[in-house]
Design brief:
The structure is a homodimer. By secondary structure, the first copy, chain A, is an alpha+beta fold. Among the domains of chain A are: about 130 residues, Acyl-CoA dehydrogenase/oxidase, N-terminal domain (Butyryl-Coa Dehydrogenase, subunit A, domain 1, Orthogonal Bundle); about 130 residues, Butyryl-CoA Dehydrogenase, subunit A, domain 2 (Beta Barrel), CATH 2.40.110.20; about 130 residues. In chain A, about 55% of the residues lie in helices and about 10% in strands. Chain A is built from 19 helices and 11 strands. In chain A, strands 3, 4, 5, 6, 7, 10 and 11 form a 7-stranded mixed beta sheet that branches. Chain A is globular, with a radius of gyration of 25 Å. Chains A and B meet through helix 1, helix 3, helix 8, helix 9 and helix 10 of A and helix 1, helix 3, helix 8, helix 9 and helix 10 of B.
Chain lengths: ~600, ~600
Amino acid sequence: MVQYKSPKREYEFILREVLDFEEQIKGYEGFEEATWETIEMIADQFSTLSEEVWLSSNRDGDVIGAKFENGNVSLPPSMKRAAEAAINSGLTSLFGHQKYGGMEFPTPISVFSDEVSCSSNMSLGIYMGLTKGAYHCINNHGSEDLKETYLPEFLAGRWFGTMCLTEAHCGTDLGLIRTKAEPDGDDKYVINGEKIFISAGEHDLAENIIHLVLARLPNAPKGVKGISLFLVPKFLVNDDKSLGERNGVKCMSIEEKMGVHGSATCVLNFENATGYLIGEPHKGLSAMFSMMNHERISVGLQGLGISEISYQNGLAYAKDRLQGRDLKGPKNPDEEADPLIVHPDVRRMLLRSKALIDAGRMLSCWTALAIDKSDKDPDEKIRRENNDLVELMTPIIKSLLTDFGVEISYDMLQIHGGHGYIKEFGMEQFSRDVRIAPIWEGANGIQALDLAGRKMPKNMGRLLRRFFHPVLAFIDKNKEDSNMKEFIIPFEKALKGLQKTTLFMAQKGSSNPYEIGAGATDYLKQFGIVSMGYMWLLMLEVAFSKKDEDDYYQHKIITGRFFFERILPETLFRAISISSGSKTIMSMPDEGFNSVSKFSGTL
Amino acid sequence: MVQYKSPKREYEFILREVLDFEEQIKGYEGFEEATWETIEMIADQFSTLSEEVWLSSNRDGDVIGAKFENGNVSLPPSMKRAAEAAINSGLTSLFGHQKYGGMEFPTPISVFSDEVSCSSNMSLGIYMGLTKGAYHCINNHGSEDLKETYLPEFLAGRWFGTMCLTEAHCGTDLGLIRTKAEPDGDDKYVINGEKIFISAGEHDLAENIIHLVLARLPNAPKGVKGISLFLVPKFLVNDDKSLGERNGVKCMSIEEKMGVHGSATCVLNFENATGYLIGEPHKGLSAMFSMMNHERISVGLQGLGISEISYQNGLAYAKDRLQGRDLKGPKNPDEEADPLIVHPDVRRMLLRSKALIDAGRMLSCWTALAIDKSDKDPDEKIRRENNDLVELMTPIIKSLLTDFGVEISYDMLQIHGGHGYIKEFGMEQFSRDVRIAPIWEGANGIQALDLAGRKMPKNMGRLLRRFFHPVLAFIDKNKEDSNMKEFIIPFEKALKGLQKTTLFMAQKGSSNPYEIGAGATDYLKQFGIVSMGYMWLLMLEVAFSKKDEDDYYQHKIITGRFFFERILPETLFRAISISSGSKTIMSMPDEGFNSVSKFSGTL
C-alpha cells in the first residue's frame, strides 16, 4: 500500500539552481563524464529501480526478514532480486574510482542514491552502504595489492563488505576490544575473537563477504592506541582472484531486532581466521575512522530517506482520507466529510516535515560538495577549508537527520491514526526501521560530544569559521534585500544566539569538561537548526529570483517561511537550556536517581 | 531481563505529603474504608502482583501475542494466569461502587493501579481499563436493570467490557457511523454492522464480553446527533444471570500491529445481534463521552507507566554498563571503564525523564483528586469547580503523558545503545507498545483542539480560571520565600507567556478558527509544561520543608531544579511558534506539498 516516487526535481533544484554544482566541480579530475545529462539518466534509472523493484521487496524484508540456519543467512527472494537489479543498474559502481571499474560520480549524486535507496528499502541499502564504506577504507589505507584484489569486486557487486568493530562488552568504547591478531609469516595474520552486531556479516546476496576487523596485535598498547585493522574475507582469494577455501569466520546467530529485519545483524566468530593488515599496526582505529565522515553522512541519509517516504505517504493519506470538516465549513460538500489536509494541525505536521526534509537534503548536498572539493580541488587551501567544513557538519548531519527521521516517521504515522499502527499500512515499519539510525555509527549523544568537545575547540575554532564566515557574508550581502529581510532578521538573531552559546561552551568547557557534556546535545540541536536556517536562506534566494517562473518556487517560499516562523525559534530554547550548565546534572548522587519502591514506614 | 519495582514511595509523597489527600477526601461518602493503612496494604498487593506476575507475562504477550482462529481469540497461558491473579487480588473491583461489590477506592488509587499495571503489562492493562470504562458508562447512563445485571460481574472480573466506536470509514469523525439498530419489541434492539479496531473485542480471559456499541436507530438525524448507544453481550444473559445463547456478534479477524500484541484488536461483525439501549435514543455519543475524562486520563497513564518502567531500566543499564571514562578522569580505576551514568549527557536524559515522570504523576493524582471532589463533595460549587478543572486537564494529561511516554521510552532505549534495538533486552517493546497511546481515545491533535477550541473558550474562560487562580495565589504566597524564589521567577515568566498566548488564541480564534487549529498543538504543549511547572512548585514546597529529614527530599529538589532550568524554557519556543498564526500554514495550496518527482525538462 506504500507509495513512493523519487524526489528528482528537489535534487535538481538544490544541485543545479542553488549550488550551481556543475560549475563548482568543473575541471575536477575523474568527474569529466558527470554532466547533468548523464546524471539525469542515472538518476532516472535508480529512481525506477527504487520505485519498482526495491520498494516492492521492502515488506518481505520486514515480514520474512533474514533467516539463520546452520551458520548461513538467507534473504527473501524478492530482496535478492532487488540486489541483483541494483548491481545490474550500476548502483554499486557509482561512487568508485574509474581505475577499479567505477563511474566515479560526484558525492552529491551518492547523496541522491543513498536517500532513494533508504526510502525504498533501508535494509537493502545497508548492505550497499557498508560495501561502500569498506571500499573507501581499503582505498585509503590498504596496500596496492589489497586494492587491486578487492576493490573491483566491490564495484562489480560480486563481493560485499562489513565493518567489525563491536564486541559484547564494548560498543562506543572501542579501547576495550579483545579480538586478537597474531602474525603468521609474510603479510598474513591469524585472527581470533568474537564480534557482535555485525550488519551484513553473513548473507546470500554476494559470492564473498569481506570483513574489516578491529583487533589487537601481541603486545599492543592498551586502549585505542593498540588497535589494528585487518581484512578478513569469508572465502580466501586465490592469486587468480577465484575463490579459495572457507576462512575461519563463522556466523553464530543473528539478532532479533525492532526493525531493519532484512538486514542480518550477526554474531561472528573468528577462529584462526586469516587476515591481512590494513594500514599500519596499532593505527586501525584512525584508518577505520578515516571513512567515518562518509559513513556517518550515509546514516544521516537513512534518516532522510525514511523521512521522505514517510512524508509522501502521510501526505497521500491526508489528501485521500475523508474525516471531519474544515473548521470554516465543508470544503467537500458533496462528500460526507472533507480530506484530512483541510485541518491546520495536519498541515502543520506536513509543512514541518517538508521544511525539515528540504533543509536536511540541502545540508547533505552542500556538505557532499565540500567532500569533493576537499578531495579534488587543485588549491590546497580550498581542500583544507572544505575538509574542515565536512568535519564540522558530519556529526550534525548524522544526528539531526536521524532524529528528525524518527520524528517525521512518527508524525506521518500519527496522521494515519489507528491505521498507522497496523502493519498492513506500512507506516509503522518506517518508525521501527529508522530507530536504529540514531544509535549506530556513533550514538547521537556521541556525535554531540564530537561536535562540542572536539570539532568546536579544534585549532582555536578554525572549523567553526568555515561555517560562520560564509554565513555572515551572506547576511551582509542580503540583509537589505526586500524579499530576504523577512528571513534574515530572525536568522541573525538565532545566529547570534549560537555564537553566544559557542563562546559560553568554549569558555566554561575549557576549565570544566562536564560543561561540554551537559550542553552537547542541546548545542548540536541549536547548531543544526541554525545550519538548516542557512540552507533555507540559500534556497530562498534562488526561489525569489524565479518566483514568477513556476509555482514550484512559490511553494518553496511558503515552506521556507514555515521554517523561520516555527522551527528556527527552537534554537532559543536550546540556548537557555545550555546556559544552565552542568551543575544541577552533576549534583545528583547516583542513588538519587532511583524511583523509591517502599513506603517510608517500611524503608 | 527487564526489571521493575512499583514506585510506592513516590505515590506516598504525592498523595500524603503534597496533596494531603486523606484530609481532602475526609467525609466523602463511600471512602470510609480508604485509610492510608488500607491503601498501603492494597498497594503492596498490586505491586507484588505487577512485579512478579504481570511483568513475567509481558514478553509472552509481545512474542506470542493474541492468536485468532475460527472466530476465537486466545491469549498466552502466562497472560491468562496474570489476569486470574489480578482478579483474585481485587484489582478489578478497586474502583467500583460498594453496592455492586466494589471497594470504592478514591480515584488517585486508580492512578496508582493504572500506572503499575501499564508498566508491567500494558496489553493486559488495556483489558482491565476497557472494563472500567464500560462500568462507568453503564453506571452513569444504564437502566437499573442493566446496572444490576452487568456491573457486579465486571467487578468480580468474570465479564469484561469493550467500546465499539470505530468503523472502517470513520475513526475521529463518529458522525459518519453506519451500524444500524432496529427496535425489536420491549427493550430490545437488533444490531447490524461492522466495527473495526475493537480492543479486547474477543479473547479467552473472561466468561462473557460486554460490548458498548454506537449505532443509528431508524430515521435517526444525520451526524453525531443521531447516534445511540447499545449494550451487546457476547453471550445473552438469562434472567438468573447464567449465560444463555451466543449473540450475533462475531470476531472476523484481528489486526497485526506495531505493538501491544497481547491486546487483541478485532474486526467485529454484528449480525442481527440483540442489544439494549443505554441512555436515551440519539444521545449515545454524549453517554459514551461522559466517561471519556476517565478513559483519556487512563491512556495518559499508559504513557506514564511505560515511562516509569523504561526509566527504571535505562537507569539500571546506565549504572551497570561500563563504557568510556568520566570526562574528568576514571571514576572506577580498578575496572577497564566507568559506568555510563558518569556521562553528563546520560545523566541529562535520566533527569529529564525523572522530572517529567514526577510531574506527570503529580498532575494525574492532582486531577484524580479533583475527580473525586467533583463527584463527592457536598458543596455544589466545589463539585462544579473541580469538574471544570478535570475538563481542562484531561486533554493535557492524555496528550502530554503519552507524548512524553514515547520520548522517554526513546531516550531510555538510546542509553542502551545497540542493545536497546535488540528484542531480548525488552526496551524496544516499550517503544512499540506506547506508540498507540498518542493515537487512541482521540489522537493527540484532537486533544489539542479540544483544549484550545472547546475548553479554553468555554463559559468565557471559566475552566481556565480553575487553573490560573490557584496558581496565581500560590505565586503570591511564595514569591518572597528564599527557597522558592529560584523557581518562581522563571515560572512566573512562563505563566505570563501562557496567559499572553491564551489571549492571543482567544482573540484571533474568535474570528478565524484556523488560528485555533494552527496553534492548538503548541498551545497544549505550552499549557502542559506550565502545569507541570506548577506541580513541581507544589512538590518543591514540601521538599524544602523536609529537606533535612531525608535525602529523598534533596533528590526531589535537584530533579525539580532540572525541570525549571531545562524543561520549562520550551514554553518560550511554543509561544513564539503560536504567535506566527495560521497564515503560512493555510497559504500552501494542496498540490504545493508534493515532492516533485520529475526533472524540470520532463515535467
